[in-house]
Amino acid sequence: MTQNIANPDRPQRTLVFGGARSGKSAHAEALAQAAGKPVIYIATAAAGDAEMAARIRLHREQRAQHGAHWSTLEEKMNLGAALREHTRADKVVLIDCLTVWLSNLLFADGIEREYPEIGRVDPPAAFAEQRADFLDALAQARGEVIMVSNEVGMGIVPQGAISRWFVDEAGRLNQAVAARSERVQWVAAGLPLTLKGAPC
């Protein structure tokens, strides 16, 4: 991986994003492994159903192959606090993934709602609070941070106000994270394309 030779301890924030099954998670894990430092893997997914539980189990098995220098932290909500606690010059923090975290924030208050086909969507107060806190913590990160996110806005416009809100907010989040990152990579068919910063 390309390093900043003049200052190797300078914080390096990398956004890796792409579509479903694009290979983005595998690429992000390869970047983390290549850094040669202990890795703190922050998983944002929760086992809400059998399918998600199976996916989480598979990801855990895959991460176990990286060795004992990888440790996993499950954090569904407070990403900002997790970043402040774990970013260090001698570690890599890998977050997978931001769009799952975004959906967690949408239902942060635990209230089930009926959203209309059209109209305004008012997310819980925790959405704006946690989003702002995460972006602030990211800007102040003291070590290497690699983030995985989905690109969900390249297909047809989905039906339902909540689906359209999610697509819009995912796009805005990706833009905000990319603006704070030194490197941004798009992954398609397992192949990374560097959009910002030095390629690895």
TrEMBL record:
Pathway: Cofactor biosynthesis; adenosylcobalamin biosynthesis; adenosylcobalamin from cob(II)yrinate a,c-diamide: step 5/7; Cofactor biosynthesis; adenosylcobalamin biosynthesis; adenosylcobalamin from cob(II)yrinate a,c-diamide: step 6/7. It comes from the Bacteria. It catalyses: adenosylcob(III)inamide phosphate + GTP + H(+) = adenosylcob(III)inamide-GDP + diphosphate; adenosylcob(III)inamide + ATP = adenosylcob(III)inamide phosphate + ADP + H(+); adenosylcob(III)inamide + GTP = adenosylcob(III)inamide phosphate + GDP + H(+). Keywords: ATP-binding, Cobalamin biosynthesis, GTP-binding, Kinase, Nucleotide-binding, Nucleotidyltransferase, Transferase. The keyword Cytoplasm does not apply. InterPro entries: CobU/CobP, P-loop_NTPase. One of its GO terms (molecular function) is cobinamide phosphate guanylyltransferase activity. It holds the Pfam family CobU. The keyword Transmembrane helix does not apply. CDD domains: CobU. It is an enzyme of class 2 (transferase). Its EC number is 2.7.1.156, 2.7.7.62. Catalyzes ATP-dependent phosphorylation of adenosylcobinamide and addition of GMP to adenosylcobinamide phosphate. Belongs to the CobU/CobP family. This is Bifunctional adenosylcobalamin biosynthesis protein. It comes from Herbaspirillum lusitanum. The lineage of its organism: Bacteria, Pseudomonadati, Pseudomonadota, Betaproteobacteria, Burkholderiales. The gene is cobU.
